[in-house]
Amino acid sequence: MAGKLAAEFGVSEDTIRRDLRELAAEGRLQRVHGGALPASPAIAPFGVRHDLESAAKEKIARRAASMIAPGQTVIVVGGTTSVALVKALPPNLRATIVTHSPSVAAALADHATIEVILIGGLLFKHSVVAVGAAAMEGISRIHADLYFMGVTGVHVTARLSTGDFEEAAIKRALAARSAETVVLASSSKLNAASPFVIGDITLAQTIVVEAQCAAELTRPIEEAGVSVLRA
């Protein structure tokens, strides 16, 4: 990549690499092997993320909620889309929701027919979720039908990624405990990358995006063998 840009702009490769380093330090891109990708805006703190792409998140959340069948055991990770998902569940749905997010659990406190299992551990304040050894122990006791995973980056070669090392490990462990993994991803997360890899894009069977998401963003995902649902 550096060589092509250097030739295009008539500067040295060292200049290109220096510029890439500076842009990465400013959080404007994520350097990956062989080049760079847009940095995901979803690595902002929980309170800030609440207002990012709120309309798209609501649509994605409602589509995801419709995938849950009565009697299922479903893992829902933390995040603003996940909170919207559980709020969209039908009031008469009988199911079990497993989460390591106090915010998700609290959103279900008044749902009469949902059993809530809250996994505890060390609170990762950036995302308001439990991480660490205690969380891993709780996760190891679960067999779930469905897992709704939040990520900050979706890319065929840079893979599914997020902004924290511990959180990536938790998301990976949860995927291993579920029969099906569904990624919830607004368009800003597609073709973007974050520092810590959760797993290959095929760790997910399905990715839910908003209806208006550009086809050029979703086509590589489908070509990799992952289903794309539009909300």
Automatic annotation (TrEMBL):
Alphabetized Gene3D superfamilies for the sequence: 3.40.50.1360, Winged helix-like DNA-binding domain superfamily/Winged helix DNA-binding domain
MF terms in GO: DNA-binding transcription factor activity
Domain HTH deoR-type: 1-38
Keywords: Repressor, Transcription, Transcription regulation
Pfam families per the UniProt record, alphabetical: DeoRC (PF00455), HTH_DeoR (PF08220)
Entry keyword annotation includes Transcription: yes
Name of this protein: Glycerol-3-phosphate regulon repressor
Organism of derivation: Pararobbsia alpina
Lineage: Bacteria, Pseudomonadati, Pseudomonadota, Betaproteobacteria, Burkholderiales
Chain's gene name: glpR_4
